[in-house]
């Protein structure tokens, strides 16, 4: 029997009187009351991005002091890696059946959002919703997953390896945290689900990204006698003109269209008044289409951008995230279809998303991966984040059914 929740949070079919104790507990973990409680608990525990990134004490405290005790209540066993990521590993190994779920602790800063860490259950034209920082992006997906994990562990019927990683990432734009997690696993999981807001649609593809800096070097002088210097800003103008006219020589993707190259920051030095700057640093964002290599994309640009004397250039490659695209005839997509159906939805909706996250890391390593969770992408980092309670409840059931399809009873 597969428990299914309706939009109201009530079970479409209640557990029978003679149901096993584990099955009754599974229903409890998937109840609307339990899921909303989890979400409000997560929102009320700030874990904002800071300059410290993954090593920020608040982010690590969210994992150890907020999330971990909830897992302990479920009877889950877990450990921590060197970056502070939590890794839960349950069920028998070596069966050929495994799945990894990835959640994120870090959220966008509260910024201009009013009362970002005071969760509120509100009424909207579309139904009841929860408001707070991170509900559209990371924390609702995390709450849904905790419900699903609790249900699966309460049933105690795992026939394969169920892995969950709660990472210190979420806003960093790099794969460092998930790469650290993978070093702890003896065997690669068969598939991975990145739990992030996708409006309950399956993100079957996403762009990758390689960041890089171009430094224009000149010669400093007092600005009263600019002829004694070589103004790096003038050299930067030449570089920007080349970048704007550059043909990336990449075929358009059917869903994403063309590859893009975008300047995202510019800075000059020294930081002094009345001084001709001797250095300009420009940061660029090269979005990668599925099938592209970040190394090749970066080297292609580096080999085609230059300046004449008296300026000179240097380059520095920054963080990388890999692109991803799931095969629709592969085993993971078939499991997702089954999970959505068992959760009460006949058809799943899929799409390609522009932002980059860890799904690309897994596909780069031969692991099928998608991004999937409640929360609307258009609300990421906005001053007003809210998520429908019905979406939270539905996705908790989808995650639970996906666990059953992947590592539960055949």
Automatic annotation (TrEMBL):
Cited Gene3D superfamilies: 3.30.70.360, Zn peptidases
Gene Ontology MF term list: hydrolase activity; metal ion binding
Protein name from the UniProt record: Acetylornithine deacetylase
Family classification: Belongs to the peptidase M20A family.
Keyword Zinc belongs to the record: yes
Glycosyltransferase as UniProt keyword: no
Keyword entries, A-Z: Hydrolase, Metal-binding, Zinc
Residue stretches making up the Peptidase M20 dimerisation domain: 204-306
Organism encoding this protein: Bradyrhizobium erythrophlei
Signal sequence, start to end: none
Named cofactor requirement(s): Zn(2+)
């Amino acid at each position: 029997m597969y428990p299914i929740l309706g939009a109201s949070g009530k079970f479409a079919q209640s557990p029978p009187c003679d149901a096993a104790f584990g099955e009754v507990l599974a229903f409890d973990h998937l109840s609307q009351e339990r899921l909303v409680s989890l979400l409000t608990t997560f929102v009320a525990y700030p874990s904002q991005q800071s300059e410290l990134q993954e090593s920020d004490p608040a982010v690590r405290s969210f994992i150890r002091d907020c999330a971990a005790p909830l897992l302990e209540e479920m009877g889950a066993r877990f450990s921590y890696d060197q970056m502070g990521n939590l890794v839960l590993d349950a069920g028998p190994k070596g069966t050929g059946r495994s799945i990894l779920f990835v959640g994120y602790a870090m959220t966008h800063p509260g910024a201009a959002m009013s009362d970002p860490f005071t969760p509120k259950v509100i009424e909207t034209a579309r139904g009841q919703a929860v408001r707070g920082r991170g509900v559209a992006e990371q924390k609702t997906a995390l709450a849904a997953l905790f419900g699903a994990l609790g249900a699966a562990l309460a049933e105690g019927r795992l026939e394969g390896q169920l892995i969950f990683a709660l990472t210190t990432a979420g806003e960093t734009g790099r794969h460092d945290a998930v790469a650290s997690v993978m070093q702890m696993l003896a065997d690669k999981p068969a598939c991975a689900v990145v739990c992030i807001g996708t409006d309950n649609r399956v993100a079957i593809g996403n762009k990758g990204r390689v960041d890089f800096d171009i430094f224009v070097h000149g010669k400093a002088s007092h600005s009263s006698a600019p002829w004694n210097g070589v103004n790096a800003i003038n050299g930067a103008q030449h570089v920007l003109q080349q970048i704007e006219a550059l043909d990336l020589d990449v075929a358009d993707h059917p869903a994403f269209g063309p590859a893009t190259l975008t300047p995202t920051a510019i800075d000059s030095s020294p930081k002094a008044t009345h001084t001709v700057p001797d250095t300009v640093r420009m940061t660029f964002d090269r979005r990668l289409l599925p099938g592209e290599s970040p190394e090749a994309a970066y080297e292609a640009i580096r080999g085609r951008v230059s300046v004449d004397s008296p300026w000179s250039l240097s380059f520095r490659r920054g963080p990388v995230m890999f692109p991803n695209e799931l095969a629709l005839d592969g085993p993971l997509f078939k499991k997702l279809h089954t999970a959505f159906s068992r959760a009460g939805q006949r058809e799943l909706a899929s799409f390609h998303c522009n932002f980059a996250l860890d799904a690309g890391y897994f596909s780069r390593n031969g692991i099928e991966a998608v991004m999937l969770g409640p929360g609307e992408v258009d609300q990421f980092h906005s001053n007003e984040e809210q998520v429908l309670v019905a979406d939270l409840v539905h996705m908790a059931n989808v995650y639970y059914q996906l666990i059953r399809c992947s590592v539960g009873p055949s």
